[in-house]
Amino acid sequence: MNGSTSSGGIVVFGYSDVGYECLDLLIARGENVRCVFTHADAPGERVWFRSVAELARRHGIPVILAEPQDGPEVAETVKRLAPDLILSFYYRRMIPMAALDRARRGAFNMHGSLLPKYRGRAPVNWAVLHGERETGVTLHRMAKRADAGAIVDREAVAIGPEETAFEVMQKLVPAARRVLERQIDALKRGAAPRIVQDESQASYFGGRRPEDGRIDWRQPAQRIVDLVRAVAEPFPGAFTHLDGRRLYVWRAHAGAGAGRPGEVVSSTPLRVAAGEGTVEIGHWQWDGGPIVESPAGGEAPAAGRILD
Length: 308
Prior knowledge:
By secondary structure, the chain is of the alpha/beta class. It has 7 helices and 15 strands. The protein has 2 domains: about 10-205, Formyl transferase, N-terminal domain (Rossmann fold), CATH 3.40.50; about 210-295, Formyl transferase, C-terminal domain (Methionyl-tRNA Fmet Formyltransferase, Chain A, domain 2, Roll), CATH 3.10.25.10. The chain has helices at about 15-30, 50-60, 70-80, 95-100, 125-130, 165-190, 220-230, and strands at about 10-15, 35-40, 65, 85-90, 105-110, 120, 135-140, 150-160, 205, 240, 245-255, 265, 270-275, 280-285, 290-295. β1, α1 (about 15-30) and β2 (about 35-40) form a beta-alpha-beta unit. It is elongated, with a radius of gyration of 22 Å. Mean pLDDT is about 95; it is low at about 1-5.
């Protein structure tokens, strides 16, 4: 890794749409962004967001693709740059404290929840999964513990009862830009607010894997629907099985009714019994097949079959 030995300006760590939007704001303001640390897209990952790296390169900002093993080099590069500020926007990894300590005016992160709730990974997915009706973005000081530093500013967004995690994320992008725009001058002066987080209200969640989308039909119908919303496209999806075949559920609604958990109580429309109530499946897909909108047709599981 290399970088200028002059000091000052801003070092950005960023990824995804929030990273893109916040970097775009800094560029539009003419801020002195010295370099951008970002990630190479993971092999096999569906990339649905704009590229922070491409935006930076388009404006002549040096880009460094950093991996976890590059921690010492990251810290050394930041040390050489001696920035006034470090700003992190949806960067996926912990930034070494040896790097954070080099920013004269501090290091700040934009997190996708209303801290102290939903610290950690995939905060929007977890919020939707838990049936929350509100989330937001929080700009906070970076500390040794993830997402635990003092809050600078927050902005809430509503979660609609049928919105997917992806749809909620799209609402967070402009909210993040607004928060940064409100606070960037104070950050540069070293005069940003400092609101200590209430640890009694804190919650922490880890990353999610595709296998975490497996539906447990013993759960209440609304809980299953919230899982579907949390992992709907472009995420890997909620799924169940019949005769060894995987069936993805992309849209669903909770309703009344009863039956053995996992029992198909109707094929048109496709409805499945849950631990409490039933789940009406609006969009579904056999693994490798087309997405079908119920009750339009397709190879729907027959009534009386048990999904697992």
